Each structure stands twice: as C-alpha cells, then as structure tokens.
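Translate sequence into structure tokens.
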Amino acid sequence: MLITTAALTIAIQIGAPAKVATLDTDKLKGEPTQLSWSADGTQFALQTSERDKTGMTRNPRVYVLAAGDGKATPVDAVPEWAEKYWTWKSNQFAPWPGETKIDVMQDRKTVTSTSAPMGGSLAKGGTSGDPNGGGTTADEVASNKAQSQTLNVVTLKLMGETVGYFEGVQFLAGYTFGWAPKDVAAIAYVNGSGRLAVMEKDGQKQQVEGTKGVLLPAWSVDGTKIAFLQKAGKNKYDLYVATVTR
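Result follows.
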C-alpha cells in the first residue's frame, strides 16, 4: 500500500483509506477550501468557496459533517473548534520544537492560449514559408502574443520537498498540507503526483498508493487518523479517512 523513498525505518504506518462519503459541491455551493477535525474526532468542519475568473475565492460557506457518514449540516459561521484547529493545521511553522518551517516561493509564469509555437495556419498544419498554404502571418503572431498571460505561481517547500503548488489561483494555506499534532512530528501533504504523502520530522517520506487528486489532508487531533478529500468527477469529492499507527 505504501511506497517509501528512504532506506531507514518508517515510524508511521498508514492503513488503506476508507471512503466515508461522496460530497456533491453543486449542493454545497462551491469547492472545498478548508477541512478541520473536532477535538473528539466525531465531526468535521468543511468550508466551501467559489472562485472568480482570476482564481480568487469568494462566498465562503460552512458545513459541519458527521465523521461517521459525512452527513452535512450548514452552519452560520466557522465553529470555534475549527478555527483553533485550522490555526495549527495550516501554519507555516511546524508545531514541534525548533524552527522547521515551510518556505513560500513566489514567481510569475507566462503562458499562451495555444500549445503550438506560432499558432495560426502553422498550428493547423500549414507549411512555414508557403505563400498559399499558409505560413504564419505577422498579424497572427501578434494576435497570439496578445493572448499570452502572466500567472502568479506559489510553490511551498519543506526540507526540499514540494508540499504545495498554486498556478494562476489564490494560494490557500493548508489546502495541500496539514501538520500532525506535535507529538507525532510529521506532515501530510499532496505530492507532485497528486497523491497523499507523509513526511516525518527526520525527512522520511512515504506516499499512499491508490490515492489521486488529493486535497485538504487533515490529521485528527489525537494523531491516529488522516482525513482528506479526493476529486471524484465533476463537482464531486470523496471524503476518505486513513488510520495511522506508530
């Protein structure tokens, strides 16, 4: 079930994730942007938000989910326990002693609306230099250039490992990672393959096979479980919980 990337003994073992429920975001009005555990492990707080054309979130809504079956109940505000949870879950600094922190790197990337190098007739199969079959005209090149756009890119790094990547959308702390309680000394995150992964304080890493399109990994307060959402088609997300042993 697990793949390790180092030869040393992995202290944390993660069981096969069990699906709790499928969430329909048409009914929940927006995409999931926060997932928090209650201290007793019986509830989740789920926040959903809509995105505008620039990738920024807006119109947040909050639901309390039963941990057993994922039944959602809308609430007027984020519960106090969820706010407290999210503060340590999404913090830039690790909860264990020391100065371990996630490095936040910002960049800008220019992209065009076509994957072809020039666009125009050449992109449609014309031969460059053919006056009849269509080389790319200066107007077409100018038009293609005008369709280029510059995107903001935010990359999150922890001990050399990428634990978050946001391109052209708002950076959301905790969206791609979640610290474990300090006595566990680990972090759950979404790796470059979109799978759930765990890295321990000493740098040992493992990924959970069979997961994909993961977001919002969240440890239970007692450190015995990891919950996460996984994309399950248009406007649908599956809620999973995996058991953790040490």
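Note: The mean pLDDT is 86.
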